[in-house]
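In the laboratory, one determines a bound structure by crystallizing the protein with its ligand and collecting diffraction data. In a computational setting the workflow is compressed into a single prediction: the sequence and the ligand go in, and a structural description comes out. We illustrate the idea with calcium ion.
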Amino acid sequence: MLNQIKSLRIVLSLLIVGISYQISLGQCDTINQPNVFNESEYFANMNWDPIDDAVSYDIRYRMQGATDWIDDNTTDTIYTFINLMACASYEVQVKVNCSASDSGFGTSSFFTTKGCGQCLDLDYCESFGNMTDQIYIDSFGMSSIQNLSGDNGGYENFANTYTTELLAGSSYNFSLLFGSPVNVNSYSKIWIDYNMDGDFEDDNELVFDQGEAQANIQIDSSFTVPDTIVEGMTRMRVSTTRSAINFEGQGPCDMLTNGEVEDYCVNLANFLGECFNVTGLDTTFLSQTQVSIIWDAFEDPGNGIGYNYQYKELEQADDEWEVASTLDTFADFNTLTACVTYEFQVRTICKFDSSDWSPSLVIRTKGCSTDLEELSEDLSNVTLYPNPVNDAFFLEFYALKSEDLTIELIDQTGRVVKNYQMQMTPGRNQFSFNQLENLGSGLYYLRMRSPQKQLVRKFTKF
Ligand SMILES: [Ca+2]
Ligand SMILES: [Ca+2]
Ligand SMILES: [Ca+2]
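The predicted complex, in structure-token form:
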């Protein structure tokens, strides 16, 4: 809108001074090499300078070496990457969408997530092929490692470029394809430093041994991760040699006369862990344009590493969810509209997936003409019990004066499902509510309204 007004102003001013030539709608500048910062194991942030004519920005990113892009879109000039893989390099580009055209994707930025841990910190022995004219590793594929590496001249360390998760006790298929210009027999081994002591010599660390040299140019096989491993990022070594020359001597630290070695980082985990749903979603601040929400921190983090939160106008089919992510257990929304009912949801981001979205927290911003002041000084020690509620509960509080009191039970969609007229008296008040067995189970709000005040409590009906 701002941009349309700007364009209109340009048109008007040009008309006023009587100049007539083709009027451009404004430039849709290109964003090159956006700024990536705060890289962690699973998150990173990115920002760029705003473009005057921009309506929105397209973002695409991929793990370095991958062919497919992951696409996203935002109206902000800051973007948070979530669910990244630890110890991996990514490429990212931004495209500016203007009202009349787009800029095309600009040049790439590259960034690397943290978390390589022992895989890069430990000094592993060298192993490499002296020559590759007879055989080299043309590609290696296993889960999210899909590396068309080609001839790397005898050795390449693909830590940062390709990585995957390996669970204790699980089996993994892999595929090895050789480049062999002279079609020699091949002999291959794979090691993983399961106990993370910087060598490949311990029990079970030779995870694949081809056994007999073969002229096949492709091997499809599998191995099983032991039940007992050390969790974290460790080194995996894939080695192929020309069998006739160096059959006996293919240890994890050997120089191969003709062949190739590729190293990778793999993330060992004991179990997937649970991806728990978010609980305890509540409001901590409310004004005409601002809402702050809070939720329970993980008691048992399971697999959780952070949160997504989203909001939109309630029951507005054409209003899309605005999604963001955080490592905190709260979120602030500062650009809302007065007297509008919004719904908010939160979910857990886990290492390998995400939880379900929480049930919606429904909040109407202040500023409606019928709003009462939200003050609780006339009421104190408000308690509602038992909670969760079956078919009855008590409401107890202390009041300073005698006043009419309206009590409403409101469901999650904001609908008033019960309405009671009461009289409160100075001192301790206790009211009982029963015959609630017909209410559906879920989260409810109890709103107390006096002529000047209102107070909200929530409860769960089971
Ligand atoms: Ca290779
Ligand atoms: Ca070891
Ligand atoms: Ca050892």
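Confidence is low (pLDDT under 50) at residues 1-25, 371-376. Keep in mind that any predicted model is a hypothesis to be tested, not a measurement.
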